[in-house]
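task queued by scheduler; priority normal; single chain, no ligands, no partner chains; default sampling; output format set to structure tokens
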Amino acid sequence: MAGASRGVGRGIARALGEAGATVVVTARSSETGQRTEGRGEFVEDTAREVDAAGGHGHHYLCDHTSERAVDTLVHWTLRRFGRIDVAVSSVWGGNEGYDGERYADGAEWGTPFWRRSAEPFSHGFGSGPYPALLLARAVAPAMVSARQGLIAFVSFDTAPGYLGDIHYDLAKAATNRLAFACAQELGPYGVTALGLSPGFVRTERAIDIGHADRATESPLYAGRALAALAADPAVAAQAGRILHAGDLAATYGFTDADGTRPGRFRVGSSE
């Protein structure tokens, strides 16, 4: 579970723990070392949440923008546990420095592209689609050899329309296309790749910047969606698709942490 120190990644790890899974949770933020933006959520906390939910959590510090670091993580996991059944990338650093109104470069959300620097796109791509590709290429050989496995990319569906900010939209569109491309190449070997699109999630950052009242769901909702997909023997039928947490809840019958079942999130629906 890549990118699991907080947010959707932590929610997915916890839900897999609820299902009794052994979950290797990875991130850069550690209670004994580096802390992204000085935040107080750590990968060790996520591993403990997996244990508390009924699974077996193991934390591993990893810089998912480093090909060597990701390869080392996967080799360690295979030596320790023998196989990888599910790999999930929830790595996303594109919102780092965002205070609810402006990004670190001073630009507001949705500022026209010709009025801002293009550098944030490089950061967004490098902290989203690129780490997802690194994880997929690292786990693929073992899954192809076993002729089974699920690779999921946490993203946001761009098919219904523009997401409102050029850098965010392009990064998510690239991740979605990565899911489709991986599905084409892995499908013949029995491995499924797909994208997971949560709603407006009540993450720690959303709470900090005052957007909690706009959120439609908790991080656990997307987690339970992923856990349901992982348990579905017919999941290969979903290969290459971008699946919405709300739609999957209706299909599989799970609920959010508070017992509600929010429907598919649509851009503008929380305004």
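post-processing summary
- The chain has a mean pLDDT of 93.
- The CA atoms of residues 153 and 195 lie 5 Å apart.
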